[in-house]
Specification:
Blueprint lengths: L5 E6 L2 H10 L3 E4 L12 H10 L4 E4 L11 H14 L3 E4 L10 H11 L3 E4 L9 H8 L5 E6 L6 H13 L9 E4 L8 H6 L4 E4 L14 H10 L2
Parallel strand pairs: 1-2, 1-8, 2-3, 3-4, 4-5, 5-6, 6-7
Helix pairs in contact: 1-8, 3-4
Length: about 230
């Protein structure tokens, strides 16, 4: 069985998507408005990207900066529209003001997704109780991934947590795959790979010239080579 690691790249538009696939990305996370750390992209953008590439796409469901759910009805409408356009994989995650998971919002969206696979994003890195959050979400259908840096401040701060959680793989709440992203650098890969982590997420690292520039396929290829 192959031990090839998964490389997920953030894409904002068709140009990003095509470049990321050319560089060797295995999957794309589709968002808009990185000034707000990634919001739900327009249905038309998803459709254009879906027509341009043939790798899996995970689509963000998030309406505002931060981790509050905001207008859940609007998010449900977005989910319905994206599913009607052919979206099959999603990214979501919401917290209450006290840092506990917003189960009402998450469960409403998961019901709308009706079995689609989804990632709980970096809201986990702001949770008051990471272990409690994982256990609270453990039985939700479709949850197969946690996007996490291990800490709100990024992988440098969260490495010990990432290694500890990787070691708990298979325990209740620790079945979903760990997808490491958020301040991730190539120098982090050996330690994470040795711990069994096999999924990695990059955004800015795929754009050496900054977020105003498109994805650089050569930068993605460097990550793909490092993960070979």
């Amino acid at each position: 069985m192959s031990n090839r690691a998964l490389l997920e790249v953030i894409a904002l538009d068709v140009e990003d998507a095509v470049a990321a696939q050319a560089g060797g990305a295995d999957r794309l996370e589709l968002v808009t408005d990185m000034a707000a750390d990634g919001l739900t992209p327009p249905r038309e953008t998803f459709a254009a990207i879906r027509a341009a590439v043939d790798i899996p796409l995970r689509v963000m469901l998030r309406s505002a900066d931060g981790f509050a759910s905001g207008d859940v009805e609007a998010l449900l409408e977005d989910a319905r529209a994206l599913r009607a356009e052919g979206a099959q994989e999603f990214v979501l995650g919401f917290l209450n003001a006290d840092g506990s998971p917003d189960l009402k919002a998450v469960e409403a969206l998961v019901a709308e997704l009706d079995g689609c696979r989804w990632t709980f994003h970096r809201a986990i890195d702001r949770a008051a109780d990471r272990d409690g959050l994982r256990k609270a979400l453990a039985d939700l259908p479709g949850l197969d991934t946690y996007l996490t840096a291990g800490a709100a401040d990024g992988v440098d701060a969260g490495m010990a947590t990432l290694l500890a959680e990787a070691a708990r793989s298979g325990e209740q709440g620790y079945g979903p795959r760990i997808l490491v992203g958020g301040g991730l650098g190539l120098h982090h890969l050996p330690e994470l790979r040795a711990a069994g982590v096999d999924a990695f997420h990059i955004g800015g690292a795929a754009r050496p010239d900054g977020w105003s520039a498109p994805v650089d396929p050569a930068a993605v290829a460097a990550w793909r080579e490092a993960l070979a």
